[in-house]
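ok new one. same drill as before - structure tokens go in, u give me an amino acid for every spot. 181 of them this time. try not to just spam alanines like last time pls lmao
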């Protein structure tokens, strides 16, 4: 149900007046994050040129932020690459970047902070998302998945047998898998 609400947020995004400074942008984002107000966070983005899929990805990232314990929200510089080409698609910010809002987490996990880049337009400051542009031949995207098989504490182990199909050099290859649990 939560994802349905996020998608609904993205369909009718109406902007309030844009923040006049990067400090105001940071303060409005911090307040929205503290209130776990996805709509307010989404409204701080400039969505010009951003695909529906990238909007959804951004909204899911924002939703994840609302589930973390936040240590601080501050203005910072952009330290990540501004542009990348992956599988023949160029990803780049939809605004000229002016800086980043750096959100630090209290939990020191695999990543203890996230940078959300922002830029300036004539009417104010906005959070920036990524645009996608096909620049090379389309490359099939690979997908990773995991399967977990659990058993019981019974004295006799059970055997699970199944198969999966992988594509190797353009051909589908059937592989057999076994697990003793």
């Amino acid at each position: 149900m939560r994802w349905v609400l996020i998608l609904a947020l993205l369909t009718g995004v109406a902007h309030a007046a844009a923040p006049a400074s990067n400090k105001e942008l940071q303060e409005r984002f911090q307040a929205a994050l503290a209130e776990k107000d996805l709509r307010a966070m989404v409204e701080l983005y400039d969505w010009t040129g951003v695909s529906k899929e990238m909007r959804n990805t951004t909204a899911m990232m924002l939703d994840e932020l609302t589930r973390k314990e936040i240590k601080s929200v501050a203005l910072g510089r952009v330290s990540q690459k501004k542009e990348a080409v992956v599988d023949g698609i160029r990803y780049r910010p939809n605004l000229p970047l002016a800086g980043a809002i750096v959100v630090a987490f209290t939990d020191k996990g695999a990543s203890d902070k996230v940078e959300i880049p922002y830029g300036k337009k004539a009417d104010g400051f906005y959070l920036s998302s990524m645009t996608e542009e096909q620049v090379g031949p389309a490359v099939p995207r690979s997908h990773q998945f995991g399967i977990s098989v659990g058993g019981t504490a019974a004295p006799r182990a059970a055997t699970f047998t199944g198969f999966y199909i992988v594509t190797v050099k353009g051909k589908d290859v059937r592989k057999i898998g076994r697990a003793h649990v």
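The chain is about 25% helix and 35% strand. and btw The helical segments are 2-11, 22-34, 38-43, 52-65.
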